[in-house]
Sequence to fold (271 residues):
Amino acid sequence: MSFTKTTEQASKYEHLEQMSVNELLTNINKEDQQVPLAVEKALPQIEKLITVVVEKMKKGGRLFYIGAGTSGRLGIVDASECPPTFGVPFDLVIGLIAGGDSAIRKAVEFAEDDRNQAWTDLQSHQINENDVVIGIAASGTTPYVIGGLEQCKQNNITTGGITCNAGSPLALVPDYPIEVVVGPEFVTGSSRMKAGTAQKLVLNMISTATMIQLGHVKGNKMVDMQLSNVKLIDRGVHMIMSEIPVSYETAAELLKQHGSVRKAVNHFLNT
Fold:
């Protein structure tokens, strides 16, 4: 198929090595400001995908992200932050990267070119029709991602896709494609920049809106968050104090006894 890979078109800027630090920062920032505007245009697509993710999760399904390189790492970051932020099981949102966990820190050569590996990776998690798989690829051409989504569709598994090129192969495969077209990068072809930022913003929306819809936020607070350090414990104490009329010491004791803001508040209100 023929389409324009805008993420790999020449940068609007020349002679970057001759720019001062201030010029570099100003121009990078100028380009970055276009990203949320591009995301805004894709909000209807993002909404459709989130709606089906919520429906599937309410029925016991899980959410998988598959990607290579920067895209894969972004999926893993988003997935790994769901348990501490929302108190959900570690295997409710799962990020998979071409080349396996070693590729998180160091690129694995040619891993993204295997069209069958993503399906193998998904099968190791007993992927099934209750789950949703979202493929992430800035270029929209990554074989690992496209092959994985194709095999998901063959097995009646709901699919989504996030890409930064309009009309790419990736946009044609999933049930719910998301296209966030950010244009050429400041450094030609460096899609970890605007494209990476766009993908991160979309992933933030998917996981956050989904978890809110599933009831893991009350008001505007992370009432199910894991209390994994002193900062979060202190935050939890103040959340309790904002919900019920108790002292810091009492709130801290309630939190210690019940293990979460939600349980501590519910216990107080029901006794």
Remarks:
- The CA atoms of residues 239 and 261 lie 7 Å apart.
